[in-house]
Amino acid sequence: MEGEITIERNVAERYERQAIMKEIGLSGQRRIEKGSVLVVGLGGLGCPCALYLAGAGVGTLGLLDDDTVERTNLHRQILHREDTVGKTKVESAVLALRERNSEIEIVAHPVRVSQENVASIVGGYDVVVDATDSAATRLVLNDGGVLRNRPLVSGAVMGAEGQATVYNYLGGPCYRCINPVQPSPDQVLRCDETGVLGPIAGMFGCILATESVKILSRQSELAGKMLLYNGVTMFLRLVRQRGRQSSCAGCGEKSPSAEIRGMCSPMKAEDIFETEHRVTWDEYGKIRALGRPQALIDVREADEYDAVRVSGAINIPLSGLVSRVGEVQRLAGQGEIYLLCRRGVRSKKAAEILRRHGVYAKDIIGGMCVFDEKQAKAVLIKG
Questions:
Q1: Percent of the chain with pLDDT over 70
Q2: What string of DSSP letters covers 143-193?
Q3: Please, what is the angle between helix 89-100 and helix 46-56, to 10°?
Q4: CATH number for 43
Q5: Residues facing 152 on adjacent strands
Q6: pTM of the prediction?
Q7: Is residue 336 in some structural domain?
Q8: Does 306 lie in the same domain as 228?
Q9: pLDDT for position 300
């Protein structure tokens, strides 16, 4: 009885503006106060996320990061201050959050998440937030979440662009369903290479907090969907992702989910990239003949494209694909995306990269080497 009175008083004095929302209500606020969220990564995404989760009254807030605060962090990592430079990010965040809300429990994890500790750590929380902006860490968190049946709220930012989604929730796909092949280090750009706009990180950190609160209160609109935003062009889109895959190595029917180490081991693209992601020239030609909205992207280098190209194809070389993802996302908003190269090797890699950025694309088997004008319903243009 005393505990219920305390909750009612907290709602009236502190969380009233949140609890009176019909989407939350008193019952939702109680779930939030009894709930627990683990925020992994206390950088540009994790800081605003943790700040708003603390403000919302999440009962137990876990903070995981093994890094220290640097001056270059301060423009976007809003929990850290000039006087905490050199301290661990966990220590800095705990100090700031306890000043914000002394009524919640804050649990510090000043460690790096790994295959060995992920299951035991995520199992202690209701929701896991991936705020690391690291594909390798996201993979480990995903597999630990699948094993412990925990939803993974995930976000990433680069430059003025960001994306957010929820994995492994309400029967939706896990991270491996969408990205069965882990990217190699040379395919992944970091914010210290491309830069990042602080408000974009703040915006998506708030989105991660919002989705976490919605899950605790029994709702989420991002399950099976991905939100994409470009702060320069103001392009905003919510895309539906492919559903949970029975063949998925993480959550599928035959997944070795009892072994985190096995689940996180690297996989070869040729073993995973299923035929459903690829088409023949004949299949592409039929789509073109039907007049279905589509874009054909040639990922060969510019000199190859200039020498000989398929009519109607757009040249976006694989070497510059990551920097032009926003352009492809806009094309995807208008129709289906098909990729081609010389032999089908680069186009397959391009499709994998695009899927990691929320764009579903199919590549053409054999590429230019097996081009057939009758099948493709297109012609070659030389010079």
A1: 87
A2: HHHHHHT--EEEEEEEBTEEEEEEES-TT---HHHH--SPPPGGG---HHH
A3: 30
A4: 3.40.50.720
A5: 128, 167
A6: 0.67
A7: yes
A8: no
A9: 93
Residue 229 Cα to chain centre, angstroms: 12
* Both tokens assigned to 137: 């860490």
- Note whether residue 105 is domain-resident: yes
DSSP assignment string, 240-296: EPP---TT-TTTSTT--TT-HHHHTS---HHHH--GGGEE-HHHHHHHHHTT--EEE
Question: Residue 185's pLDDT band (boundaries 50, 70, 90)?
Answer: low
Alpha-carbon Rg for the chain, nearest whole angstrom, is 23
- Tell me the one-letter amino acid at 230: N
Q: How far apart are CA 353 and CA 347, in angstroms?
A: 10
Q: Is 37 left (phi over 0), alpha (psi -120 to 50) or beta?
A: beta
**What pLDDT is recorded for position 376?**
81
Cα first-last separation, the chain: 82
Tell whether 115 and 220 lie within a shared domain.
yes
Residues whose CB falls within 8 Å of the CB of residue 215, separated by 6 or more in sequence, listed in order:
126, 127, 151, 153, 166, 169
Q: Residue 126 carries which side chain, given as an amino acid letter?
A: D
136, part of any domain: yes
pLDDT value of position 189: 54
The model's pLDDT over 306-354, given as tens digits with 9 standing for 90+, comes to 988 999 999 999 989 989 999 999 999 898 999 999 888 889 889 888 9
Q: What is the mean pLDDT of the chain?
A: 86
pLDDT tens sequence across 295-317: 999 999 998 899 889 999 999 99
* Burial of residue 217 (number of CB atoms within 10 Å: 0-12, 13-18, 19+): buried
Of 296, 282, 280, nearest to 338 by C-alpha is 296
Catalytic residue set: 191, 341
